[in-house]
Please model this.
Amino acid sequence: MNVVVTGSQGFIGRNLMVRLGEYPELTAKGIDRTTTPGARAAALESAQVVVHLAGINRPPSPDAYAEGNAGATEALCDELRTLGRPVPIIFSSSAQAVLENPYGISKRNAERAIEAFGHETGSRFAILRLWNVFGKWARPQYNTVVATFCHNIARNLPVNVHDPAAPLRLVYIDDVIDTILQLIFSGVPATGEVSVGPVHDTTVGQLLETVRSFTSIRKTRDIPRVGAGIERKLYSTYLSYLPFEDFVYPLKAHHDSRGMFVEMLRTADSGQFSVFTAHPGVTRGGHYHHTKNEKFFVVQGRASFGFRDLRDGTYRELLVDASAPQVVDTVPGWSHDITNVGDDLLIVLLWANEVFDSARPDTTPAPVRS
Model:
């Protein structure tokens, strides 16, 4: 299937072109301001579906909205009419199309041009009335307040907020792209407005607070809940605005005669991750927990895990080699330790189900091996 994307170098366009390139059955052709008339005509001639993303939202004067949005869409429809065949169109409109401002009116008139084209030629069309789209590659100080906040905060630049209580309705770029892909692969079965979601309701102040919370992760190693919902999407967006030199950050390593211990990450309610090493012959641990539990993964080397039951003193041992990946659980009520029984440095990844609390460590020393 040949897919033509107008505005292919814009925020949504760049994301869509990358995703389209992931499907060998699709051929994506992008059109932008630099495309020559001949190349544009050739691309449209082969189009089996057109995703119309081109438009303007920050012109030098309000009068330019009409030409940049409605006028450009009418011109596209005229070009497609010359093909003499139906061509499905997916159009990225705006939730502002219902408003009586120059931008909203221009988007509404663009929708009407596509509707007229569809009814005249029998072409199916889908109109996406998008709320504020955010995600990677949006242009700061231009596309979205999310991009501006992420860009400035990632660089420790000032952020100006006039009304923290101002409401925001946000849609994530990947959700927009997923909707477009579903329409492409289903042959644009819909005719008319297609909803894109989920829509995330927040405020400017809440958004700023969330994005700023990401900056403390590298200092405290405490990461907020970024695995679901808008927090997941905002954190990924924030990371996309980091300067390259900030792709890496240091951790504090604790060294002693046994080896090294480094705490990597602490979560809000799912414990913490650490890594430690042990030299050949070294034993680490030798304690028990009442409630705390841990999972050990041997990344390099060979280890002996010793366990002793606090009830009757029963001793058990597990031998684990990195060549056969396994996870070893520590069990409440059993004292445990780990000994490097190999010839190389032992490297172990450790997850504990709770963040260490020095006031209530739930870690009591106890011998394991006799």
